[in-house]
Write a structure and sequence with these properties.
The protein is globular, with a radius of gyration of 21 Å. It starts with a strand and ends with a helix. It contains eleven helices and twelve strands. It is α/β, with parallel strands linked by helices and about 375 residues long. Helices cover about 40% and strands about 15% of the residues. It folds into two domains: about 130 residues, Aspartate Aminotransferase, domain 1 (Alpha-Beta Complex), CATH 3.90.1150.10; about 240 residues, Aspartate Aminotransferase, domain 2 (3-Layer(aba) Sandwich), CATH 3.40.640.
């Protein structure tokens, strides 16, 4: 039986094109880009080229692109850096109850530092209320953080409308959005009213260890690290050019194939759900299909423990998830599923598709999930 990998929201396999570029860079472009000699300058020029290409894909200026080690660092730099740099303007922060742990833990740290943090609830479908968001923005609100696509359910927020609602209420409030699960997968708005955007490379086929933070010109941030003037002093440390180059390649391919990949992935999601339903599997869908990315969806199974099902599938070579990889070893019930008020929170699993996922993969997985759920329920209901 073939291996079926459906945990692409945790990480996607590295694209062959991205891996080839990274390998070449490791072999040929190994000089430090901050070195004064020509070999270092050549790498610096290539990093500038990658920055310009990524900026063009986002529709921003190259000077607004900062390389990080991934989405978690980008979120931390955005949230902690913005709050600390702008504290004199106020101490109120707004975010949602379903953000990635790298945002939630960052704002909890800010609470310890004396900031007032409010968490917006979400509907059963996982969406925030834009009127409630606007109403909670105060004169002293310095930062709002709302993710574009949820990493556990795939639910999309109307991020352009959210940014507009915040700016209409208080133009000085900074707006940050986590685009890690959205970039390269769904059509995204121009970031005109957004001040900070986080991206992660390994969600679109680049290697782990590379991310981007878009910082709108004029936005004040405090760095998290110290010890160098790299990237205008905002993110000290020698740039990881092989990973930067791989991210550029992966992002370029994702942009070029965006519509094709979206249609194909939506069809795969539909095939999976139809197969699971046809097998008369008892489940609930925790993801509203009309308002979500096809790459991620969440299922709840009554009388099933998600981690037991996960390991039963793993034994057969099918890999899924119970939620965010950053939290999967900590909590039995996902904070996202709990915030939705979804039924069967202890029996919820995440299915996440990738660029490499095929029809045979989803059909095999659906059949095996149905089989394992029936087997496990026999033990529970005895």
């Amino acid at each position: 039986m073939r291996e079926v990998y459906l945990d692409n929201a945790a990480t996607m396999p590295v694209l062959a094109e991205a891996l080839a570029e990274a390998d070449q860079a490791y072999r040929q472009d190994y000089a430090n880009p901050s070195s004064l000699h020509n070999k270092g300058y050549a790498v610096e020029k290539k990093i500038t080229g990658s920055r310009e290409r990524l900026a063009a894909i986002l529709g921003v200026s190259a000077s607004e692109i900062f390389f990080t080690s991934g989405g978690t660092e980008s979120n931390n730099l955005a949230v902690l850096g913005a709050a600390r740099a702008n504290r004199r303007s106020g101490g109120h922060i707004l975010t949602t109850a379903i953000e990635h742990p790298s945002v939630l833990e960052a704002v909890r740290q800010l609470e310890k530092e004396g900031f007032a943090v409010e968490f917006l609830p979400v509907s059963r479908e996982g969406r925030i209320d834009l009127a409630e968001l606007a109403a909670k923005v105060r004169p002293e609100t310095i930062l709002v953080s709302v993710m574009a696509v949820n990493n556990e359910t795939g639910v999309c927020q109307d991020i352009a409308a959210a940014a507009a609602a915040v700016k209409d209420r208080n133009p000085k409030t900074l707006f940050h959005s986590d685009w890690v699960q959205a970039f390269g997968k769904i059509k995204l708005p121009q970031p005109e009213q957004m001040d900070l955007i986080s991206l992660g490379g390994h969600k679109i086929g680049a290697p782990k260890g590379i991310g981007v933070l878009y910082v709108k010109k004029g936005t004040k941030l405090e760095p998290l690290f110290f010890g160098g003037r790299h990237q205008a002093g905002l993110r000290p440390g020698t740039e990881n050019y092989p990973a930067v180059r791989a991210f550029e390649v992966a992002a370029t391919l994702a942009a070029e194939r965006l519509d094709e990949n979206y249609r194909r992935t939506a069809a795969l999601r539909q095939s999976f759900l139809q197969a699971l339903t046809a097998a008369e599997t008892d489940f609930v869908l925790n993801t509203p299909l009309a308002q979500s990315s096809p790459y991620i969806f969440n299922l709840g199974f009554p009388d099933i423990r998600a981690e037991v099902l996960l390991h039963a599938l793993e034994e057969e070579g099918v890999y899924v998830s119970t939620g965010s990889a950053c939290q999967s070893r900590k909590n039995r019930v996902s904070h996202v599923i709990a915030a939705l008020g979804a039924p069967y929170p202890e029996g919820s699993i995440r299915i996440s598709l990738g660029y490499q996922t095929e029809e045979a993969d989803v059909l095999q997985a659906a059949g095996l999930i149905s089989q394992k759920v029936r087997q496990l329920r026999r033990f529970v209901r005895k």
